[in-house]
Structures
1.
Amino acid sequence: MTSLPDGAVRRCAMLVNPFHSAHYFAPETRQELTALGLKDQGVYFAGRSAALGRVGAGVVTATFHNFKPELVAQYVPAVWEITSPQDVLDARLRAVDALLRRLLGEDAVASAELAEAATLALRAAEGCRPQGRTLYAALAELPVPAEPHLAYWHATTLLREHRGDGHIAVLLGAGFDPVEALVAHAATGKGMSEKWNRDLRGWSAEELEAGRQRLRERGLMDEGGALTEAGTALREELEQRTDELDRGPYEHLGAAGTARLTELAHRFTTAVVEAGAFPADLRG
């Protein structure tokens, strides 16, 4: 087993994640998928679940974890009566291509550094394991795009969902339901704000407050909605457990490769963030 510096797994993962996630908020994604006939949240649910095939609402709810089941059921499986998973995957890749060219510019898209980032991230993804990781496993069966900028985005998708699937297992083991997980993450300042948890995840203000009350009863949150000392410690413990489940890709890449991928991921993620890829009020 390769020795990695303390914190190396999380540092790299936290820089890889936003590069993938930027497309969820992109006009290019909405344009491409609405052209297929999809509407509203159907764009998100179809785009993110397409690799799973024509599955129903139960599978998507279980796989995504923190969405209100009734919201998922409004769109799934109805989206697959409108279009096909393959058409959605093709449209999503076209959207990502246009998005990255807009946010990064043609010089960065064609750069040797982005090609190097793709090589490193794909090598890291070779260390991922599918067991218990449904969404990652489905995505891993997709072909790797030929263009380096799209190959890098594809690899960041694999790494992101591999970690995400593991994180869900950790949350379940700690007894966090979907709402509790959302409000606890928001309380760290790194999760989505209440507005976005309502609008995108489907939970009402009352349901979110009920989740906070359950955390108060466990001594994890105070009356003002901030994490207590115990809550902060538990959140860190959950992230550490997630890091352990996510070591495989970075152990496979090695310490030097992980350090270089972290450096390049910082460069390209910073570029997409500074170009306005995310809404200003996204974070809690």
2.
Amino acid sequence: MTWVLLRGLMREQRHWGNFTQQFAQAHPHEHIITLDFAGNGALYQQASATSIGAMVEQARGQVQQQQQQSEDKIKLLAISLGGMVAVAWAERYPHELQRMVLINTSLAPHNPFYQRLRPANYPAIISTMLTGTQRQREQLILRLTSHRSNAASAERLLNDWVHYAQQYPIRRRNILRQLVAAMRYRAPAQAPQVPLLMLTGARDALVGPQCSATLAHLWQVELRVHPEAGHDLPLDDPAWVIQQTLG
């Protein structure tokens, strides 16, 4: 069996940090695949897709190259924008998937724009993404996505993220292309035809936790809430996230 881990906007597979190793230890008999969308990470020189559907095809192509057995069913663990890709994947190719775990995702038309991206963050996001330095951008992302990092660990993490950004610098036009993809995507009214679990952090400063609650109610699927974690749940409490994937 294969687990595929999908990150969100502007993030690459290295942003999973130690979570990937911990996840693999908890799933010793399963193949773990992490990947980068075009424009991110090792693929930073490519043009990002402007549709979620195109991102699905990119992900499927990478997975097919890395799968140990082509007939393996796939389990998806996806955060934020990656959750949109997971839902679109399930809509297009439900027969390929065994299970999905979505973390702090939000989907139009079911979630209003002011819940999908908290309005209080608009000025900082616009100014920092368009004119800020790499360090300022990564500082903002860390502040908005993590709720539990202490000062020492946050500084180490920030240094790692700045190094990633310097090694594989994401182009501003690719940031915009990914935003366009997210804005254009419209999720189906019906639940994905794949077993689905939703996770959310109650202290998410980027996306309103009510987005996950709305989707879980609409689709009649289980929602589990971490009372202290923020948007990047695998960063804030990796053990908790992994435990949910085992149940």
